[in-house]
Amino acid sequence: MxxxxxxxxxxxxDKAGISKSVLFQLETSEAPNPSLETLQKIAxxxxxxxxxxxxxxxxxxxxxxxxxxxxxxxxxxxxxxxxQDIATNEAALDALYVLxxxxxAPKTAADWRWLYDTIVLKLxxxxx
Length: 128
Hints:
Blueprint: H1 9-16, H2 20-28, H3 36-46, H4 50-54, E1 59-60, E2 66-67, H5 72-83, H6 90-99, H7 109-127
Protein backbone atom coordinates (compact mmCIF):
# COMPACT_ATOMS: atom_id res chain seq x y z
CA MET A 1 0.00 0.00 0.00
CA UNK A 2 2.91 2.31 0.68
CA UNK A 3 4.15 1.92 -2.88
CA UNK A 4 0.65 2.33 -4.29
CA UNK A 5 0.49 5.62 -2.40
CA UNK A 6 3.83 6.65 -3.96
CA UNK A 7 5.49 7.00 -0.58
CA UNK A 8 9.05 6.08 0.27
CA UNK A 9 9.64 4.12 3.45
CA UNK A 10 11.09 7.19 5.23
CA UNK A 11 8.16 9.33 4.04
CA UNK A 12 5.54 6.93 5.40
CA UNK A 13 7.45 6.43 8.65
CA ASP A 14 7.61 10.19 9.13
CA LYS A 15 3.95 10.69 8.19
CA ALA A 16 2.87 7.90 10.57
CA GLY A 17 5.13 9.05 13.38
CA ILE A 18 6.95 5.72 13.67
CA SER A 19 10.57 4.79 13.17
CA LYS A 20 11.88 3.68 9.79
CA SER A 21 13.23 0.50 11.36
CA VAL A 22 9.79 -0.48 12.71
CA LEU A 23 8.21 0.10 9.31
CA PHE A 24 11.00 -1.82 7.58
CA GLN A 25 10.47 -4.78 9.94
CA LEU A 26 6.74 -4.74 9.26
CA GLU A 27 7.29 -4.77 5.52
CA THR A 28 9.97 -7.46 5.47
CA SER A 29 9.09 -9.82 8.33
CA GLU A 30 7.36 -13.09 7.51
CA ALA A 31 5.30 -12.87 10.70
CA PRO A 32 5.07 -9.24 11.80
CA ASN A 33 3.27 -8.58 15.06
CA PRO A 34 2.75 -4.81 15.34
CA SER A 35 0.76 -3.14 18.08
CA LEU A 36 -2.74 -1.88 17.34
CA GLU A 37 -1.49 1.67 17.88
CA THR A 38 1.25 1.25 15.25
CA LEU A 39 -1.25 -0.16 12.77
CA GLN A 40 -3.64 2.72 13.40
CA LYS A 41 -0.85 5.24 12.78
CA ILE A 42 0.09 3.56 9.49
CA ALA A 43 -3.54 3.29 8.36
CA UNK A 44 -4.14 6.96 9.14
CA UNK A 45 -0.96 7.99 7.28
CA UNK A 46 -2.10 5.97 4.26
CA UNK A 47 -5.62 7.41 4.46
CA UNK A 48 -7.31 4.02 4.93
CA UNK A 49 -9.14 2.23 7.73
CA UNK A 50 -7.38 -0.26 9.95
CA UNK A 51 -9.50 -2.99 8.40
CA UNK A 52 -8.39 -2.11 4.88
CA UNK A 53 -4.76 -2.13 6.02
CA UNK A 54 -5.16 -5.60 7.49
CA UNK A 55 -7.29 -6.94 4.68
CA UNK A 56 -6.53 -10.51 3.65
CA UNK A 57 -7.63 -12.75 0.81
CA UNK A 58 -11.20 -13.87 1.33
CA UNK A 59 -12.16 -10.55 2.87
CA UNK A 60 -14.38 -8.31 0.82
CA UNK A 61 -14.08 -4.53 1.16
CA UNK A 62 -17.70 -3.65 0.49
CA UNK A 63 -18.56 -1.75 3.64
CA UNK A 64 -15.07 -1.78 5.02
CA UNK A 65 -14.47 -5.45 5.72
CA UNK A 66 -17.00 -8.19 5.21
CA UNK A 67 -15.49 -11.56 6.11
CA UNK A 68 -16.44 -14.85 4.52
CA UNK A 69 -17.18 -16.17 8.01
CA UNK A 70 -17.67 -14.68 11.45
CA UNK A 71 -16.55 -16.49 14.59
CA UNK A 72 -19.54 -17.79 16.60
CA UNK A 73 -18.44 -16.03 19.79
CA UNK A 74 -18.01 -12.78 17.83
CA UNK A 75 -21.53 -13.19 16.38
CA UNK A 76 -22.82 -13.69 19.92
CA UNK A 77 -21.09 -10.48 21.06
CA UNK A 78 -22.53 -8.49 18.13
CA UNK A 79 -26.01 -9.87 18.86
CA UNK A 80 -25.62 -8.88 22.49
CA UNK A 81 -24.82 -5.29 21.45
CA UNK A 82 -27.98 -5.26 19.34
CA UNK A 83 -30.10 -6.68 22.19
CA GLN A 84 -28.80 -3.95 24.47
CA ASP A 85 -29.64 -1.40 21.76
CA ILE A 86 -25.99 -0.28 21.59
CA ALA A 87 -25.01 1.33 18.28
CA THR A 88 -22.03 -0.51 16.83
CA ASN A 89 -18.82 1.18 15.83
CA GLU A 90 -18.21 -0.07 12.29
CA ALA A 91 -14.48 0.68 12.35
CA ALA A 92 -14.09 -1.39 15.52
CA LEU A 93 -16.11 -4.24 14.02
CA ASP A 94 -13.97 -4.12 10.88
CA ALA A 95 -10.87 -4.51 13.06
CA LEU A 96 -12.45 -7.47 14.88
CA TYR A 97 -13.33 -9.17 11.61
CA VAL A 98 -9.70 -9.05 10.61
CA LEU A 99 -8.37 -9.97 14.04
CA UNK A 100 -10.54 -13.11 14.15
CA UNK A 101 -8.19 -14.60 11.56
CA UNK A 102 -5.09 -14.05 13.69
CA UNK A 103 -3.58 -16.64 15.98
CA UNK A 104 -4.69 -16.07 19.56
CA ALA A 105 -8.02 -14.47 18.63
CA PRO A 106 -10.60 -14.33 21.45
CA LYS A 107 -12.64 -17.47 22.03
CA THR A 108 -15.57 -16.12 24.09
CA ALA A 109 -18.16 -13.41 23.55
CA ALA A 110 -16.92 -11.70 26.73
CA ASP A 111 -13.36 -11.59 25.38
CA TRP A 112 -14.59 -10.22 22.05
CA ARG A 113 -16.58 -7.55 23.94
CA TRP A 114 -13.51 -6.52 25.93
CA LEU A 115 -11.49 -6.20 22.72
CA TYR A 116 -14.33 -4.31 20.98
CA ASP A 117 -14.67 -1.87 23.89
CA THR A 118 -10.90 -1.35 23.96
CA ILE A 119 -10.77 -0.57 20.24
CA VAL A 120 -13.76 1.79 20.47
CA LEU A 121 -12.12 3.58 23.40
CA LYS A 122 -8.85 3.92 21.50
CA LEU A 123 -10.63 5.19 18.37
CA UNK A 124 -12.62 7.78 20.32
CA UNK A 125 -9.51 8.96 22.20
CA UNK A 126 -7.78 9.62 18.86
CA UNK A 127 -10.64 11.89 17.74
CA UNK A 128 -10.26 14.20 20.73
